[in-house]
Amino acid sequence: MILYQDTTRADCSACPATIRGVCSIFIIVVAALCCNHALIFLSSNTGETATSSSNTKVNSSVALMENVKVDNAVTATAPLFQRGGIIIFFHVPKSGGTSVQENLRKLPGINYNLITGYRKWNRIQPQMEKLCSSLPKDTTTRVVEIHAGTAPTFLSLQKSLASWRKTAADNHVPYFAFTILREPVAWAISVYNHCHAPGHAGHAGKGYVARPLTDEAFTERAMHNPQCNFLTRGFEYGKANRTQPTIEECTGVQEGLLKNLDWVGITERFNETSVLLLDILGQTNYTFTKSEINARRANGTLTSKMLKKETIDYHAQISTMDYALYEVAKNWSLRAPDV
């Protein structure tokens, strides 16, 4: 048996200095089944007030939700998929999802379905209840990856996720739903490189243009809580009129992670997710290779070492709700199956 992460105390060592005070007030207990969780969100928006170490002021408002009952197997044993089953993967951009997709597609017995829009979703959605109702005759594991485009958002699918889980449990069909989150400032740097690093033509025609690798250019493209934004509203990075997620929306996301997902990994510990997936699929002789999309750029990429401290501090301050989600992921507990 492997315990992938067993900690009930938030570790703030990876957080920028400006938000360590925020981390210290998180009450995150991911330790036992059906326990009560206190969920705290601290959000910041332009024009609001709270003092950071760089003397930049943003508004900090706290929404506290207590006694949220967790019904999923946060610390339970993961299912085994030797006879097939259903895996749902919510792919947050720039979190390691391409590595998940590329490796799972190579494994035998996997039927991989990438959903990037409502057209594809409308084809597979009617089949989901049926897929959760009985094991496939050919022992195939159906993987459904929901990612970007016009695909439905994580927040919009909460009722469906609860229903699929119940149907699968009632019919003894292995079912596993997961996502991966990333340290927020690292996420912002990665998405900037993905869309704007010189020499990258992957998004030609989608409104993305090459931009300088400077503090000013990077900050001009800053988003408030972009991972929460994606899970509530989809990928808005390239939109001219980008929106900000509300505290209520991000609270809904955090509650949904705890109630309806079996695993929330982090990019910085990607090996935990890859080993877990291989264990439940019975593919222990395979080793994941990690895709490094940004490393393929011909003309360099932006790195944190190139940025000023105040630039990093600013991006941390506008991502406090993302940091709350990230803390949940860092403290997730799940055991591998006994084999």
Protein architecture, described:
Helices cover 33% and strands 15% of the residues. The chain is built from eleven helices and seven strands. Helix 8 (247-260) runs parallel beside helix 11.
Write a short abstract of this structure.
It contains 11 helices and 7 strands. It is α/β, with parallel strands linked by helices and 339 residues long.
Pick out its properties.
339 residues; two-stranded antiparallel ribbon; 11 helices; globular; alpha/beta
Task: Please summarize the sheet with the most strands.
Answer: 5 strands, parallel
Helix coverage percent of residues?
Answer: 25-40%
- In what order do the strands lie side by side in the largest sheet? 4-5-3-6-7
Terminal-residue CA separation: 8 Å
Secondary-structure content class = alpha/beta
Per the principal axes of the C-alpha atoms, what is the gross shape?
globular
Quick check: average pLDDT? 78
| H/I helix tally | 11
Order of helices and strands: HEEEHEHEHEHHHHEHHH
Low-confidence stretches: 6-14, 17-75
The Rg value, from CA coordinates, equals: 20 Å
How is the topology of this model organized?
Layout: H1 20-23, E1 36-45, E2 59-69, E3 85-90, H2 97-104, E4 110-115, H3 118-131, E5 141-146, H4 158-170, E6 175-181, H5 184-196, H6 215-220, H7 226-233, H8 247-260, E7 263-266, H9 270-280, H10 309-317, H11 320-330
Parallel strand pairs: 3-5, 3-6, 4-5, 6-7
Antiparallel strand pairs: 1-2
Helix pairs in contact: 8-11
